[in-house]
Amino acid sequence: VAAVAAAVVLVCITKYWRKLQLIVKAHRARWKLRHLSTSQEGNSDDNQPRVSGIFIHPVKSMRAVPLPETNFDKDGVSGDRRLMLVRPLPTPIYGSFLKGEPTHRFFTQRQAPSLATIDLKPVIAQDRSKILIKLSSKMSPNNDHAYIDAHPKSVKKLPRYLAGIWSDVVEVVDVGDEAAEFVANVVSKDDPSFKDVRVVSILDTSVRRINEKYCPDAARVGFLSDLPQGGLTDGFPILVATEASLELLNEKLKKKGKDPLPMSRFRPNIVISNTTKAFDEDNWKAIKIGTGKDAVILHLVKGCPRCKQSCTDQLTGARGEEPVATLSEFRALGKSEEDVYFAQNAVLNGDCYNKSIKVGDPVTILTRGDPIWDMEDVQAE
């Protein structure tokens, strides 16, 4: 008995000792990076990289909304991809869903390119108990529209589901029939079976952590140094792109006699101009946006693999072969020749939540390192 008790105590000590070591490492890493950030303070100039665009996608796979400024919360860029579309999964052959098993599956432009035609407009409601988003689309019958009220009080009594996003399962809440019927009328033009689509919102209490393999110590959150969350994004809360990289891609398209593509094809949150060369962001490890104690530090953790969604015109929903066809000629950098990369996934430094950035803010490259691509096969759906 004494031997068993000693073994249990040893296991507990080992477990909590490792956690304590992780906490200390995370706090030390954040302090070092903040110290480095402060030491590099100086006068910005016109040639310094700057934020040239900020975008959110309130509903995953619908159109972007440009912003002059934004702030960050526990799920990343405030208001970005907090809602998404799902379809119900078939009832299992064993009769009913098991506890913790997803009942619905996420649904995107990969399946329904017509989602790119749905325009989003946040509406300022006089009633502060509502958070309204107006949906409209030229593909909607009679050019009608719908409203989503995503306020936590409004959805409190609506159905909840467990939704699968890639290999994760997250609890979401249905936002009602009006939005679902509007979206169904649009996406059913891609496939009549899509009529069962629903619009859902992430809950304040929902937890979906990023992949630990890609998380720097300094990006861990809070005193206990938890992994950061990713909301309803494909995996990481922030996507950073540069104008120089898009310019190089468009030069290659032009040489083929093809039209240039807009940045909207890649659906980034933050666009940066005045970088020294195309795809320099591959080697950025930590960057600072802004100046002083309110500056935001981001960790660029992994390249973003591109799929057929980037081949979808973000105004018309028409789908072609570009940019993936051209990117495959010089950006096939993953485990497979089919894995092509544009833009970088990012996470906040662990002490940068509730801070803000704006268009025009200077960008400082704090640290550099070797590029990181996917450590496992890229998922496609």
What is the C-alpha radius of gyration, as a whole number of Å?
Answer: 22 Å
Strand content: 25-35%
Please write the string of helix (H) and strand (E) elements. Answer: HEEEEEEEEEHEEHEEHEEEHEEE
Could you give the distance between the termini?
52 Å
User: Strand count, sense and closure of the main sheet?
Assistant: 8 strands, mixed
| Mean pLDDT over the full residue set | 91
Low-confidence stretches: none
Q: Based on DSSP secondary structure assignment, what is the total number of beta strands?
A: 19
Number of helices: 5
In order across it, which strands form the biggest sheet? 2-1-14-13-17-16-15-19
Structural category is alpha+beta
Which percent bin holds the helix content? Answer: 10-25%
C-alpha geometry: globular
Quick overview of this protein structure:
With 381 residues, the protein is α+β, with helices and mostly antiparallel strands. It has helices at 2-39, 152-155, 177-187, 243-255, 324-330; strands at residues 50-56, 65-67, 69-73, 76-77, 83-88, 104-107, 119-123, 132-136, 145-149, 160-165, 168-174, 198-202, 238-242, 270-273, 284-289, 296-305, 341-348, 356-358, 363-368.
Q: If you had to describe this structure to a student in words, what would you say it looks like?
A:
The structure is a single chain. It is built from five helices and 19 strands. By secondary structure, it is an alpha+beta fold. The strands form four sheets. Strands 2-1-14-13-17-16-15-19 form an eight-stranded mixed sheet. It has helices spanning 2-39, 152-155, 177-187, 243-255, 324-330, and strands at residues 50-56, 65-67, 69-73, 76-77, 83-88, 104-107, 119-123, 132-136, 145-149, 160-165, 168-174, 198-202, 238-242, 270-273, 284-289, 296-305, 341-348, 356-358, 363-368. Helix content is 19%, strand content 27%. The longest helix is centred in the N-terminal third of the chain and has 38 residues, at 2-39.
